[in-house]
Amino acid sequence: MLKTYSWPRYATRRAPEIGQAGVRRVPLVVVGAGPVGLSAAIDAALRGLPVVLLDEDDTVSVGSRGVCYAKRTLEIFDRLGLGQRVVDKGITWNVGRTFHGDQEVFAFDLLPEAGHRRPGMVNLQQYHLEQYLVERALELPAIDLRWKHKVARVTPGEAFATVEVETADGPYRLECDWLIVADGARSPIRRALGLDIEGKVFQDRFLIADVVLDGEPFPADRTERRFWFDPPFHPGQSALMHREADNVWRLDFQLGWDADPEAEKQPERVMPRIRQLLDSQGFAHIGFELEWVSVYTFQCRRMANFRHGRLLFVGDAAHQVSPFGARGANSGVQDTDNLLWKLQLVVAGQAPASLLDSYDAERSFAADENLLNSTRATDFMTPKSRAAKLLRDAVLSLAEELPMGRALVNSGRLSVPALLTQSPLNTPDGETFEGWMLPGAPLDDAPVRAGGEPGWLLPHAGQGFVLMLFGAPDPAYQGAIDALANGPVPVRALVVMPAGEPGPAGLTWLEDAECLAAKRFDARPGTAYLIRPDQHVAARWRRFDAAAVRAALARATGQESQA
Question: What is the pTM of this model?
Answer without folding.
Answer: 0.94
